[in-house]
Amino acid sequence: MQSPGALCSEDIPRSLAHHHAEPALMNVTSSTWQLRSPCPCCGQGGLTFSTCIRCHRVLLVCAEVGTVFDSRDRCPCGSEHFENATSDQITALGFTPDDYA
Ligand SMILES: [Zn+2]
Ligand SMILES: [Zn+2]
Q: How does pLDDT run across 27-53, given as a tens digit for each residue?
């Protein structure tokens, strides 16, 4: 989930970041996308876009507290298992690249 020491993803075109599988870019391809706005529960940055592995709904998860927003710690479908959302999924929700990083 976390990618400590990741390359600065802002320097890499988003369309490339998810289609390159070179080892040097591992941190980028596996990186999480986080909303730039502070988290409403703890005031920290780090709201991470995650996708429910069961129903593929995109949810925001607080990196500090683990809170899943809009649905009390789990997906409305009942699943508690998530994977990193892709930038395509995020923009499909109406977010622009200026909203997340
Ligand atoms: Zn929080
Ligand atoms: Zn779900």
A: 445 578 999 999 888 888 889 999 999
Listed residues: CB within 5 A of ion ligand 2: 52, 54-55, 57, 75, 77, 79
Same domain, 48 and 82: yes
How far apart are the C-alpha atoms of 86 and 29, rounded to whole Å? 9
Q: How far is the CA of 41 from the centre of ligand 1 (A)?
A: 4
Give the C-alpha separation, 57 to 18, whole Å: 19
Cα of 82 from ligand 2 centre, angstroms: 8
pTM above 0.85, yes or no: no
- Domain match, 21 and 36 both: no
State phi, psi for 28 to the nearest 5 degrees. -80, -45
Instruction: Specify whether 95 is located in the same domain as 47.
Output: yes
> Across the chain, what does the average pLDDT equal?
77
Residues 50 and 81 in one domain: yes
Domain range for 5: 1-31
